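Reviewers asked in the last cycle whether our approach scales beyond single polypeptides. To address this, we selected a multi-component target totalling 528 residues and predicted its structure end to end. The input consisted of the following lines:
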Amino acid sequence: MNVTDVSPARVPQEARARFRAGGTGTTAGWAPGHVQANLLAVPADWAYDVLLFCQRNPKPCPVLDVTEAGGWTTPLAPGADLRTDLPGYRVWADGELLDEPTEVTGYWREDLVTFLIGCSFTFETALGEAGVPMRHIEQGRTVPMYTTARQCRPAGRVRGPLVVSMRPVPPELLGTALNATALLPAAHGAPVHCGEPGGLGIADLARPDFGDPVTAEPGDIPVFWACGVTLQAAVTASAPPFALTHAPGQMLITDARDEQYRVA
Amino acid sequence: MNVTDVSPARVPQEARARFRAGGTGTTAGWAPGHVQANLLAVPADWAYDVLLFCQRNPKPCPVLDVTEAGGWTTPLAPGADLRTDLPGYRVWADGELLDEPTEVTGYWREDLVTFLIGCSFTFETALGEAGVPMRHIEQGRTVPMYTTARQCRPAGRVRGPLVVSMRPVPPELLGTALNATALLPAAHGAPVHCGEPGGLGIADLARPDFGDPVTAEPGDIPVFWACGVTLQAAVTASAPPFALTHAPGQMLITDARDEQYRVA
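The resulting structure, written as structure tokens, was:
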């Protein structure tokens, strides 16, 4: 395994093998057409609250799979080891970031239930295919993300604000963008808001809470989609005694195809 | 409140008030355009298994809402009492049918978590609007339902077979029927199977496991959708110590509109 090879792998198994061997970095552009997933692992006695939080907030938290307690495998990626096959992880204790390792076998616990959650990389493929320009990709930046003033519907001990990603869309392509993503509810679905950022309590688009600011073209309308980072914000707000997540942008690459999740 | 009035109420609040006052019978055709829901209440220590079963089997079990333990209200139907406002209930002990009362206040327990699950009445409205004939309605029958040979993906202690409903569809309207229902994942979504019943292990369409046989027109293709009765089959197969469900066809009528659940 050549871990110095930095060109994105096109085959999911090869991508996971490279990350297992120590490769790291964002998975954006890797294994195009294959579903990537956010990861959150919590102790089993928090699993019901997390699952119910996801059910009550399906736009930011579309559940793709949930493991058995202690399990580190998923039918979405046969052969994958969820403890090693992502490029980077975050380890959380009482809602505080404890460590950012490249594998978590040393942190693993037999009572961990792992949630795999849909990711906007899936709908960015759909938007690109529909001819909608992705300004942040054109500009070589990470999509800007904002913590909104809107609270998710809580579930037991799990609560937190809605986090959104923003993409500027030319007005003539707004309907195209809405429809293309609406058909992918497993990847955050239709936007939660278009236009005026103040409607979500966002003060300044130039100062995202995560990712990079992006330059809009004249006439572009800011379009806001629910974002999987909502779950990391919930870890911070809810402070479970222990949690593991992926590092931002460093997702699980599954064998599932994007089009399997298109509803029509 | 005139409980002898048997014409379907058009307004959800009026429908629920009539059932609360003792009215009973199927809710088919009541409050058209409003979402109706399957109901299942289980002790809190079974709630995670049920919620995970629903997540793993979203076509038969699309979750619309989950109450807090002991709660009998839902934001989908403000003012409703889930213990009294359905026309009929079933009470289950260890997977066996114990009683079929018209209200369940006497059976209520403080540890019950109630699941509200999407219902095919929503997609039948969409099919009708799309011009797809509903043979069972034309023939004044309950839609035929079949227990298939396909097992749902289990979750903890909860397991059981997939139950499907069948509607004969003229071949030229097959695409219309698929698309109209695919856009309603909260109401079972696209069909799970079309054509040969043997593909689902169904021996004889003339002998449904629930509901009535329906007569197909020449050329009609049998189309099978996942069915909410799957959850009652799971109660039978999994035998939780206690459970409440609605009586078949006697659903919760919510204030939500069908179109709120259309993805595009």
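DSSP finds six helices and eleven strands in chain A. We regard this as preliminary and will revisit it once experimental data from Aim 1 are available.
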